[in-house]
Known about the structure:
The chain is an alpha+beta fold.
Amino acid sequence: MRLSEVEEALQALLHTVLLHRTFPTLSFKDGAVSYTSYIGIEDVDCKTIDLTYVKVASDPLHERIASHVATFAKALREEPDNRYDKPPRGCIALTFAANRKGSWVLGSEPSAWERWVFNIELQSITSNDGERRQELASQLKGKLLYILDCINAPESSLPELGSSQIECDTVIDFSMPEVSPYRFNVTHVPGTTQAKQNKPSGIRRF
């Protein structure tokens, strides 16, 4: 894909995952957890791709993802296109992890329970622009559907929520107003991609 399309494509993919890994505001009472509101959602019409996707309506969440994606796109932009005669490439990963208790010396240790890895490769475009946009949109729609299939698969499991905010704090990020996503981190590595074979449980590569 083109560099101008990378940011919108990645935001569509990452926000689709987060839509299913985010709770509304959580409330704790008498040893039980409940929702105090409904999670807001909004449609996003991409400008460079013929695609519309749904994301959580949260400015802090959007800004966090946009910042990571912009940093990754900048790294791709600066990647030399003549490196081993290969086009610029890289991978970006969305990792959900629980803060498990560690030793008194090391403190808490994050333990990843789900990771989504997206491989990106920039290519020179030679085909008709209209046809290529349709093809890219079709490919992305297929990826979004695959994400939903993975999320709804019987083997897909989520960490259990505790009965108090202190217990849930190991797996839930309470720093954002109105939404409570599972704790996550976004990392990226320019200049390389990850193979799709032999992936462990909980690891999704695209």
